[in-house]
UniProtKB/TrEMBL annotation:
Organism: Streptomyces litmocidini
This protein's record includes keyword Oxidoreductase: yes
Stretches assigned to the 3-hydroxyisobutyrate dehydrogenase-like NAD-binding domain: 168-287
Protein's UniProt name: 2-hydroxy-3-oxopropionate reductase
E.C. number(s) listed in UniProt: 1.1.1.60
Sequence similarity: Belongs to the HIBADH-related family.
Residues annotated as domain 6-phosphogluconate dehydrogenase NADP-binding: 6-165
Source lineage: Bacteria, Bacillati, Actinomycetota, Actinomycetes, Kitasatosporales
């Protein structure tokens, strides 16, 4: 019998499916629940167990990992008679890897504590590729002892794993991450349109730019998206729109000015309003092309 903790995984989307599979590869027992049957079938094919409900998935779990789109979904799966808090065993550890508001994480930890359940917030950065390759950056908020307990599991999912402070701190750092990523993608998109309109070899230009101070993980990961206009979602505009709302609201609450971030947040919102919300966030290129008079 394995001595590894039993894991329940709630939310098997673009990120959750490959992450749960990496835990299976690492030898963990994973019971999962999500709303899409094909995702449950994928988990079962990989060696996991598909559950018929949240309650069924979490009832025997030592660690419950959640990866859902936003705060309303975290609240929906956590609370109520069919939710995690009513059905998880005392002493269980919830590792919420969703990207949500810091306050939602703080509230969840407080409410879980009343049930004898522990929580850490552990949002990630790295996109679908990082999830598949198990090289995610994981920013954590919570108690040191709970972080230490979760660390071996997190090490099967990512490479850079840091406890950033008390509950909600991981979400605050993730909000800052999303600010940097959005501004970086926007800058890259503007550079691409500028280079193409100037008649420069775009592939060569992006190679040399990425070798200097302008280089970034964003440019490395999204270069082919820009070159091929391939906007298959690794991280959807809809989700980045949600995250830009989180960071601008949190910044306002603490009195931090985000002049460039606020502009990029509006550009993300505009792209979404034009029907591109389901595309990868590298599709910010489409917004720049439209502003530059190109047919998209």
């Amino acid at each position: 019998m394995s001595t590894l903790p039993k894991i329940a995984w709630i939310g098997l989307g673009i990120m959750g499916s490959p992450m749960s599979e990496n835990l299976l590869k690492a030898g963990y027992s994973v019971t999962g629940f999500t709303l899409e049957q094909d995702k449950l079938d994928r988990l079962a094919k990989a060696g996991g167990t598909a559950a018929g409900s949240i309650a069924e998935a979490v009832k025997d779990a030592d660690v419950i990992i959640t990866m859902v789109p936003a705060s309303p979904q975290v609240e929906a799966i956590s609370y109520g008679p069919e939710g995690i808090l009513e059905n998880a065993k005392q002493g269980a550890l919830i590792v919420d890897m969703s990207s949500i508001t810091p306050q939602t994480s703080v509230d969840l930890a407080k409410n879980a504590k009343e049930k004898g359940i522990r929580v850490i917030d552990a949002p990630v950065s790295g996109g679908e590729a990082g999830a598949i390759e198990a090289v995610l950056s994981i920013m954590v908020g919570g108690e040191q002892a709970d972080f230490d307990e979760a660390l071996p599991i997190l090490e099967a999912l990512g490479k850079t794993i840091v406890l950033c402070g008390p509950h909600g701190s991981g979400q605050t750092v993730k909000a800052a991450n999303q600010l940097i990523v959005a501004v970086n993608i926007q800058a890259c998109a503007e550079a691409v349109v500028f280079l193409e309109k100037s008649g420069v070899d775009l592939n060569a230009a992006l190679d040399v730019l990425n070798g200097g101070l302008a280089g970034s993980t964003v440019l490395t990961r999204k270069k082919d998206n820009f070159l091929n206009r391939d906007f298959k979602p690794g991280f959807r505009i809809d989700l980045h729109h949600k995250d830009m709302g989180i960071v601008t609201d949190a910044a306002r609450n603490v009195g931090a000015a985000l002049p460039v971030g606020a502009v990029v947040a509006q550009l993300v919102a505009s792209l979404r309003a034009q029907g591109d919300g389901g595309l990868d966030h590298s599709a910010l290129l489409r917004a720049v092309e439209r502003l530059s008079g190109q047919q998209v």
